[in-house]
Amino acid sequence: MPVEDRREILQALIPTGGRIQFSEAMPGTGDAVYHLVDQAGLEGMVSKRKGSSYRSGPTMNWRKIKCYTEKEMDIIGVQREAGKPAMVLMADNGRYAGGAFVAFKADKRQRLWDRVQGKIGGPTPIGLKKAKAEWLKPGLVGSVRFLKGEEKLRTPR
User: Fold this and answer.
1) Cα–Cα distance between 90 and 54 in angstroms, integer?
2) C or N: which end of the chain has fewer Cβ atoms within 10 Å?
3) What is the full per-residue pLDDT of the chain (157 aa) written as tens digits?
4) Burial class of residue 100, CB neighbours in 10 A (0-12, 13-18, 19+)
5) Angle at 119 (CA atoms; ends 115, 120), nearest 5 degrees
């Protein structure tokens, strides 16, 4: 059965005003809808290829397209453990925003750690006790890319 026919049947089964809601199909191209989703500050969108039929298992008919934003934030701490990726702890306008894994190539990562070494010894932020964190003095800023739609960093890079 094509997706349009299945949606019609599904809509009839879901009562309006309940916890489970039926999402309306949006007209237009995927690019146009993505632009609206991005402008609304949402995390992203899920779409299904029009006219596709149902089939179990992996398929290329479903798409989840995420919306990201990039922002400069203060680096307030680092967390490093042997065998785990290093993480920088970030704040936005003085408020803790979360941590981002450091995925730089070795030379760039080493330059970052050299700069961090000169900043170790900052105060522990109020209400934020992270095990194995080294808190930094103010002055380091980093650019971080993360999913839209949340107050804290989600899938940051």
Assistant:
1) 43
2) N
3) 777 888 899 999 998 888 998 888 888 888 999 999 999 999 999 888 877 877 888 888 888 999 999 999 999 999 888 888 888 999 998 889 999 988 888 888 888 888 888 888 888 887 777 767 889 999 999 999 999 988 889 989 8
4) buried
5) 115
Two structure tokens written together for 80: 């490093």
Residue 63, H or E segment: strand 62-66
Contact 148, 37 (CB under 8 A): no
pTM over 0.85: no
φ, ψ at 81 (rounded to 5°): -135, 140
Residues constituting the chain: 157
Which residues, in sequence order, are CB contacts of 34 under 8 Å at separation 6+? Answer: 45, 65, 67
Whether 134 and 120 have beta carbons less than 8 Å apart is answered as yes
The whole-angstrom separation of Cα 2 and Cα 10 is 13
How far is it, in rounded angstroms, from Cα 53 to Cα 31? 22
